[in-house]
Write a structure and sequence with these properties.
Largest sheet: 3 strands, antiparallel
Structural class: alpha+beta
Oligomer: single chain
Number of strands: 3
Radius of gyration: 21 Å
Number of helices: 2
Order of helices and strands: HEEEH
Helix content: 55-70%
Amino acid sequence: MKKRVIDANIFIVSSIIFTIIMLVTLAMVDLKLGTKLGEGVFYIKGHYKEMTEIGGEMKSTTVTEQGPGVITVPLALSLLITLIAAIFLPKKKKDEKVVK
């Protein structure tokens, strides 16, 4: 039971850290028009031009779009870190018991 609590804590803390890192990085990244980061469920950010009618005239506006990757990428990385910790932490404890 204690092992699952530790795994849950690792997952939660790492997902928060990865989300903060991703949001700070995305705020600093300057993409050119027509470019996007990621694809599908891991689509993070994109810029494109859109023609809209404003006051009877067609004007182009720049649209910045953030996709579901802002949530799914940190969760996937956190799951990977949790799985690595779940595999290697028990092995480390077994090795310590053998040494003593």
